[in-house]
Amino acid sequence: MGLAGAAAASGAVADSLAPGDERFKFVAGWFLPAFGTDVRIDGETEPGDDVNLDDDLGLDGDQSGALLGFEWRMAKRHRLGVSWSQFSQNGTRVIDEEISIGDETFPVDATLDTKWSIDLIPITYSYSFLQSEKNELAATFGIHWDRFSLRVVGTSGNNQLVGDSDSSADLPLPLLGLQYDHHFSDSWSAGIGASYFSIEFGEDTLDAEGSLYSARAFVEYRFQGRYGAGLALDYFNLDLEATKSNLTGAYEYDYWGPQLYLIARF
């Protein structure tokens, strides 16, 4: 019995994993944000109109999307992380005023069918300059890679095509931030984080200027040692003016909303 009990205790210890002791962390979940998006896609010779995707094109500001994430703790104080979120929307609206998007000008009473999508891929390195059994405070550096596409097809009352605008762009944006985690016990943790960048200087190199703000608060519960679930609240704002070869114009979007996710740690 003593040997069996020792083996069982050893197995329990092997299955448990204190927060911060994992080498790999996987996250998968669902994101339920409310979006606000304004775009201006300029043509080759004339600027486009400022367009709100909800009010002007009929897209729903409330939507959901998938969330995947991975973090590798290379050493006690060093982590690499990447996550991916995707959102897409379709909308239809009969417009009551002329709208110019890119090189297309859609007339009054045209029916606009819109498809919009965005992928958010932050890639980060974190250094924990404060770390203890209960607390961890880290500086975060990296790239917030955003890819968006917008297609607007306009037809008249007799279904005659009156315009087709298709735009997309990859926006790799620098990122600086702080993240604080507090572990109440081996089962419960909570934390907050914030990131920021501004590229109002150096726009000749990056073909863009603007700013990004993001903030996140979360609580996690771990069960059976290596697995858990989390609830987070995210806020994100990007205000960008670009003169890239495949996108000239302005892009502003923000979102906030909850995340529900599962965790596996090894």
General description of the model:
By secondary structure, the protein is mainly β. It has a single domain, classed as Beta Barrel (Lipocalin). Helices cover 7% and strands 68% of the residues. The chain has 2 helices and 14 strands. A hairpin with a 5-residue loop joins strand 9 and strand 10. The longest helix is centred in the N-terminal third of the chain and has 14 residues. The two termini are 30 Å apart. The N terminus is likely disordered.
Q: Quick recap of the structure?
A:
With 266 residues, the chain is mainly β.
Q: Percent of residues in beta strands?
A: over 45%
- Straight-line N-to-C gap: 30 Å
Order of helices and strands: HEEEEEEEEEEEHEEE
Under the CATH scheme, which architecture would be assigned? Beta Barrel
Number of strands: 14
User: What name goes with the CATH superfamily?
Assistant: OMPT-like
Number of helices: 2
Write the topology of this structure.
Blueprint lengths: L1 H14 L8 E8 L2 E8 L9 E2 L12 E11 L2 E17 L4 E3 L2 E3 L4 E21 L3 E21 L5 E23 L4 E11 L4 H4 L1 E16 L3 E18 L2 E19 L1
Antiparallel strand pairs: 1-4, 1-14, 2-3, 2-14, 4-5, 5-8, 6-7, 8-9, 9-10, 10-11, 11-12, 12-13, 13-14
Keywords, please?
mainly beta, Lipocalin, 10-stranded antiparallel beta barrel, two-stranded antiparallel ribbon, 7% helix, 68% strand, disordered N terminus
